[in-house]
Amino acid sequence: MDPLAGMDDSSTDDDTASQTTEDDPQIPENQAAQLPAPAPTSAVLPAPPLPQPTPVINQREKPHYVLRHILRGHTQSISAVKFSPDGKLLASCGGFAVPFFKPMSHHVSFPPSQTGAEKVVKIWSPETGEFLRNLTGHTQGLSDIAWSSDSVYLASASDDTTIRIWDVETVCS
After folding, report:
1. CA 140 – CA 157 distance, rounded (Å)
2. Which range of residues forms the domain containing residue 166?
3. Is 86 a residue whose pLDDT tops 90?
4. Residue 3: its pLDDT value, please?
5. Would 140 be classed as within a structural domain?
6. Are 73 and 131 spatial neighbours (Cβ–Cβ below 8 Å)?
7. Is the pLDDT reported for residue 111 higher than 50?
8. In the predicted structure, residue 136 carries a pLDDT above the cut 70
9. Is 155 domain-assigned?
10. Bridge partner residues of 144 (DSSP)
11. The total number of structural domains that make up the chain
C-alpha cells in the first residue's frame, strides 16, 4: 500500500522531506501499525570474557655455546665480523687506531705501534678457522663490511671515503 496515498500534492518539498512518527496525523492508524518498529538507539552487549594470562615458564633451556676457533691475524681493533649468508665464509675488518690522551693535555695521541689503522679485510673458513685471504686496497681504516644475499660479493666501507665491492669467489678460489 502506498503510504503517500491521500496526501495533498500541494505540499512543499520541505513538508514531504520531514520525518513522520506514529502519532503523526497524516498517517492513518492502520498504516502506522504496518511500519517497522524503530531500532533501539543503543544496545548493551555483554563484554567479551577477559583472556586468561598464560603461565610464564622461567626455566628456559640455556644455549650451549662451544668455542670452535680463535682467529688471530688482526693487529688493530676489529670493527666488524660477518658470516656470509651461506655460512661458508667469515669476513672481518680492522678499524681505527685506538687513541689515548696524554696526561694534562687535551691533544689526542696515538701510541707508536698503533699509528696506522688496518686497511685490510680478512676472509676465514668458519668451519676450520683457517685464514684464507686478505682483501687489500683501501688507504685508511675500515668501518664495516656487508655480504650480498647470494654470498658472492662483499662490500667494505673505509675512512678513505670509498666502498669497495669484492667478488669473493674470484679472490678466494
Report:
1. 10
2. 78-98+108-171
3. yes
4. 56
5. yes
6. yes
7. no
8. yes
9. yes
10. 157
11. 1
